[in-house]
Amino acid sequence: MSQFRALAGVLRGGRASRCQWLRGCGAGPPRPCVDPSRGCSPGAAPVPSAVASSSSYVEEMYFTWLEDHERVHKSWDTFFRNIQASSQPGEAGERRPSALLQGRARSHTPDVAQKVVEDHLAVHTLIRAYQIRGHHVAQLDPLGILEADLDSFIPSDLITTIDKLGYYGLDESDLDKTFQLPSTTFIGGDNTTLPLREIIRRLETSYCGHIGVEFMFINNVDQCQWIRQKIETPGIMQFTNAEKRTLLARLNRSTRFEDFLARKWSSEKRFGLEGCEVLIPALKTIIDKSSAAGIEGVIMGMPHRGRLNVLANVIRKDLDQIFCQFDPKLEATDEGSGDVKYHLGMYHERINRETEKNITLSLMANPSHLEAVDPVVQGKTKAEQFYRGDTQGKKVMSILIHGDAAFAGQGVVYETFHLSELPSYTTHGTIHVVVNNQIGFTTDPRMARSSPYPTDVARVVNAPIFHVNADDPEAVMYVCRVAAEWRATFNKDVVIDLVSYRRFGHNEMDEPMFTQPLMYKQIRRQEHVLKKYSDKLIAEGVVTLQEFEEEIAKYDKICEEAYTSSKDEKILHNRHWLDSPWPDFFTAEGEPKSMSCVPTGLDEEILQHVGQIASSVPLEDFKIHPGVTRILRGRAELVKNRQLDWALGEYMAFGSLLKDGIHVRLSGQDVERGTFSHRHHVLHDQEVDKRICVPMNHLWADQAPYTVCNSSLSEYGVLGFELGFAMASPNALILWEAQFGDFHNTAQCIIDQFICPGQAKWVRNNGIVLLLPHGMEGMGPEHSSARPERFLQMSKDDPDHFPEFSGDFEVQQLYDCNWIVVNCSTPANYCHVLRRQILLPFRKPLIIFTPKSLLRHPDARSSFDDLVKGTKFKRLIPDEGPPGVDPAQVKRAIFCTGKVYYELAKERKQQKLEKDIAIIRLEQISPFPFDLVRAEAEKYTHAELVWCQEEHKNMGYYDYVRPRFLTVLANKKPIWYVGRDPAAAPATGNKSTHLNELKRFMDTAFNLSAFQGKDL
């Protein structure tokens, strides 16, 4: 368009401008100047089309054109071709300007030529208008009652009626004139010129039919040209008879599956696919095309609508396993509570019959939080690519199926798109398929989104968007082919918007006529897509009616046989629905191969080696910041003295696991340096841009890789991504660190729906680690509390039951829990718990409340002796001072966890109460260490028992630990509370108030008469 805008200026410009344009300087190969004496510089930039006012210019150009059409600008070429076309017989072949041409050149050329050029530019602008806005008038709604873009207005620059030609300065007489086509269109096929009438017809065919394409916002010319070629080339959307028959067979299976379920379980919710049955052949086309391009694994995520159909006809899960889920009398035999059938996932490796190649398909389980699975799928896809060495996404890919209302309305969709091209998160292109019901439950789309289309969020990453009428199966299949080719060619996201409808309500029990009467009157009249397409193919002679009916009967028989077989099922097997099996990790029955934990202690040699690398720069000529130099020097001093601070403890854990071949991935906001500038796992050269050093990857020659990556400013999306990454393999330590612990608030959906109940709902083991900075430092309510009460409330251990285990009590407890919650107070214990996470024979999520001030606290240090062979994670750290030596003299035993221990120890020392008061630390809060707490309570028989926390009474740990303490004490002795009073906010924003609160509860903790004589 900028070229066209420049035209007017050139037309008004002087001799030099017109000369440059006449010669076409810089356009294509160098050409001889018509008049070198005019002083044009040989390297001058090309000037857009213009017409000189002097007739001599026209004659000069005409002679040049006659000698060689390529020596003049293409606009002059078009002008002279039109002159020839309108000349009298015999005139066109003359080698000199005819009287006709001379007369026009001298008398009428400026007006005539300008009109010709303007008309060509108008046609070029018209073509561009269709490319940009043609989708607004495409016939996308199968029902024909609502515009897909929520607006019935027709853009004024699209030629929908003859009178609109005037918008471009054209009229009906121009329809049969021939125009030169620009290089930015493929509508001509092998022709470079077309009549205007044919140009408009072809543009309408390409852009205003059952396919509407949004792509002109993409800022890459080659990508735009690629799409134009796929959409505009005449006759490109062709299918062989064999392909049409395959499409019909797939559409038949999709439709008859839903019909079968409706007949057998008419009163059951199943969230069927009626109204968008074309989704099944669409997904199979994408998979076929991708398999042909070399894809070996496809990981999918989708909401509940159509899930059973996808499981049956895409993943190819046994039908009897699906049907038996409808039997209300069957009892589950596996662990966990299970989930409703339309939330379940599946993993299957099979032969793709179209390509005869092996392909692995995985459909991830998903709750009713419709888009929550999006980042989880991306994370698992990234992990599969990582472990296969698939750095370009040529072997593993992801497909995400969405609903229109959720795609537009849920922010995690944007968060997921935003990860799509980040180096540590990209999966090298995802194919998004939107099942566009044109309604969200009962909400009209005009009330559900502000954007024209539900897919507009995809524009932020320059993803092309293909809108297609779902009642045109061939158009859908073609779009799916193009989308798969796009992903294979450019490794970028692409969106397919299947504009469809729901034949029934939100579910089969719903009455949609309450809220959408007109839509559902039309739906009741709407002919099924299978009927329409089968009639079309029968009319074309591709299939016969008999063949079609036999295909229906064949699939119905398959369903009936599976239904009969499902009656033989006696129990439900939750493990049949695993989407992430770890066959080499568990036994064939899905049980751990042992019930013991390998010791987590380390050799002194390993500690020294890791410590030396952690305190040095492995690369030569690498200049680091002086502040980092001081930090490394401090680490070296600690290693020399056989001591650890928090950063070194983490280094020891990661480094030792890397030596054992365990991949470690640490992700989150600012994790490379660490929010509190303590970690520095990535060093930056101060003189060379982008030159970095990751010392952890220089520990051993044959070590596993260490991935540390700063994330986008996202919690929901990134935590979901890391959760998915952790699903791919049990032999990796995957950690997500919140910038501050309370930032997990915006990732709560992932925690509530996947991490906490994942094993119970989907038999899904997962070893994800959440690092949540926590501690009341007087920094205000936003950066103090990681909300431990939320995690503890969701822990499933029974507060009123003292567990009795044979064998290893610790491991058995961990096996029975849904996740592990710890608040370590020493670097050594932090190191041990990270190593235990991998050395356990099973996987559980691990929630770690990490410190802030303790990162540099001089007392929060550990000795190498706490990490050497024979040591392990301490679930509880007893008081090893005078109270532990002579417990009978102790008057009060204070139990606590985390940072408050150091404040208590400092206060006890100041008040000289080391012999009177014991301080015991709970390092593992859940599962609750009943056995160790009982041993401590029995040790301090004569002492009052106190629970002290820095959090407010209605927060933190108190509500969790109190009933468990009472169970340990058999309700024979009270456990007193010391801490802050109940509050609405996690902390005060006033430093003075913070200090006063701290002083008040410290005074209470060490006032030995505070609780005497009081009842519980």
UniProtKB/TrEMBL annotation:
Cofactor(s) annotated in UniProt: Mg(2+); thiamine diphosphate
Transketolase-like pyrimidine-binding domain segment(s): 644-857
Family per record: Belongs to the alpha-ketoglutarate dehydrogenase family.
NCBIfam families found in the cross-reference section: 2oxo_dh_E1 (TIGR00239), PRK09404.1 (NF006914), PRK12270.1 (NF008907)
EC supergroup of this enzyme: oxidoreductase
Intracellular or extracellular location(s): Mitochondrion; Nucleus
SMART domains the record matches: Transket_pyr
UniProt cross-references to Pfam families, sorted A to Z: 2-oxogl_dehyd_N, E1_dh, OxoGdeHyase_C, Transket_pyr
Record carries keyword Magnesium: yes
PANTHER family associated with the record: 2-OXOGLUTARATE DEHYDROGENASE, 2-OXOGLUTARATE DEHYDROGENASE-LIKE, MITOCHONDRIAL
EC number: 1.2.4.2
Native organism: Mola mola (Ocean sunfish)
Catalytic activity: N(6)-[(R)-lipoyl]-L-lysyl-[protein] + 2-oxoglutarate + H(+) = N(6)-[(R)-S(8)-succinyldihydrolipoyl]-L-lysyl-[protein] + CO2
Record lineage: Eukaryota, Metazoa, Chordata, Craniata, Vertebrata
Record keywords: Calcium, Glycolysis, Isopeptide bond, Magnesium, Metal-binding, Mitochondrion, Nucleus, Oxidoreductase, Thiamine pyrophosphate, Transit peptide, Ubl conjugation
UniProt GO cellular component terms: mitochondrion; nucleus; oxoglutarate dehydrogenase complex
Record-given protein name: 2-oxoglutarate dehydrogenase complex component E1
GO biological process: glycolytic process; tricarboxylic acid cycle
MF terms (GO), sorted A to Z: metal ion binding; oxoglutarate dehydrogenase (succinyl-transferring) activity; thiamine pyrophosphate binding
Domain of life per record: Eukaryota
